[in-house]
Amino acid sequence: MESELKNLNPTSNTQDVSSKGDRPLLKSDSAVVPPDDLQELEKKFAAYVRSDAYGPMGCGELPLKEKFLLTLALFTLVPIRFVVAFTILVLYYLICRVCTLFSAPNREGEDEQEDYAHIRGWRRVVIVRCGRFLSRAMLFTLGFYWISETYRDPFKTEDEGKNEDGGESERPGAIISNHVSYLDILYHMSASFPSFVAKRSVAKLPLIGLICKCLGCVFVQRESKSSDFKGVAGVVTERVREAYLNKSAPMMMLFPEGTTTNGGFLLPFKTGAFLAKAPVLPVILRYPFKRFSPAWDSISGVRHVIFLFCQFVNYLEVTRLPIYYPSQQEKDDPKLYANNIRKLMAREGNLILSDIGLAEKRIYHAALNGNNSLPSVLHQKDD
Do the beta carbons of residue 196 and residue 217 sit within 8 Å? Predict the structure, then answer.
């Protein structure tokens, strides 16, 4: 990989990218990649390539009409959406704050996991119902006026994946989804209000931190080399098992790819979601677009938010598959279980299977930045 990166980038700088974590390693002042090198990059890292009108890193040359529309939206639509979105965020934070008053957070393990997802009674009802409603309101504010949802059953003429007992469908232990954008979280909050896996730093963010604790998020330190990952995996497995056995327990929502793509590919699945041996509910998300792609990949966060706010209408298509019940062989082999779910989602969602992962994503982003040195993060063990 190191030699590929050097060949693709004859000019370099010494920028350190190891501390950027999983977010796009891109800046607005990134060096321009030569066209020939760019084509070679896009072939190697197709799962992370942006194909919208704004070009690589959202810095492509735009026609005059597009510049006019952007300028118009920047001074009209963006301020309105920002005020409404911020109001929704503050309102839900206040609801969560009131509902958690005089309540101690639930703590799990020795890795500082804490949440309010196990609150019972009227407080939990208010948190969930308001969270689902306001998440949908947030999506509406961002231009997702209509969300197309399709329920597909690929097992009507097949025996695999059905409930072995032949009974009615039970509650899944986890929802499994492809990962395209931070907008995925808003959709899943509006649809089922599950718990997520998030970076530990998110728990300390103003407003959002408390909301994540009310969701019951499991917080991880992605760059950690310690045994902390084992503790987190145990918490996730217990949560998945608990959600399957206890209908009042919060559902787990997991993105087994571990990072985002441009929406047309499906990366290899990590096995953490399948260690509990519980049934899962596969959900496939797509963001059709004409001008700007809502996929959060190969573009800076600020630039992405501005372009998203400037686009009057955004689209989201959701395909929900039936609950998948693992066979005994899949229960005994989490890798087989994960791979079978991945193949199913790729087939039903018309997604391309890709064998690259987070390490290649960091290489691609570093190359777009004009950095031809192999990021040190590649030598860290992926969980």
Answer: yes
d(CA 360, CA 147) in angstroms, rounded, equals 32
Going by pLDDT thresholds of 50, 70 and 90, the confidence category of residue 80 is very high
CA Rg value for the chain: 21
Residues ≥6 apart with Cβ < 8 Å to 109: 231, 234, 235
Beta strands in the chain (DSSP E): 106-108, 113-115, 147-151, 174-177, 197-199, 218-220, 252-254, 265-266, 280-286, 316-320, 352-353
Backbone angles phi, psi at 281, to 5 degrees: -110, 105
Half-sphere exposure of 255 (CA within 13 A, CB side): 22
Maximum alpha-carbon separation in the chain: 62
- In this prediction, residue 235 has a pLDDT band, given cuts at 50, 70 and 90, of confident
Could you please report the per-residue DSSP string of 107-131? EETTTTEEESTT--THHHHHHHHHH
> 353, 378, 379, 377: which is closest to 46 by C-alpha?
353
Give 255-312 pLDDT, tens digit per residue: 999 899 999 999 999 998 899 999 999 999 999 998 899 998 888 889 999 999 999 9
Tell me the two tokens of residue 200.
């530990």
Which residue would you say has higher pLDDT here, 231 or 349? 349
What is the DSSP secondary-structure string of 9-39? -SS------TTSTTS----TTPPPPPHHHHH
> How does DSSP assign 52-84, residue by residue?
STT-GGG-----HHHHHHHHHHHHTHHHHHHHH
Q: List C-alpha distances in Å: 132 to 135, 185, 193.
A: 5, 11, 6
DSSP strand pairing (352-353 vs 316-320): unpaired
Does pTM top 0.85 for this prediction? no
49-67 average pLDDT score: 84
Residue type, 221: Q
Q: What is the per-residue pLDDT for 265?
A: 94
C-alpha distances out from residue 210 to 43, 94, 99, Å: 41, 10, 11
Q: Are 79 and 309 in contact (CB under 8 A)?
A: no
Q: Cα–Cα distance between 51 and 77 in angstroms, integer?
A: 24
Grade residue 362 by pLDDT with cuts at 50, 70 and 90: confident
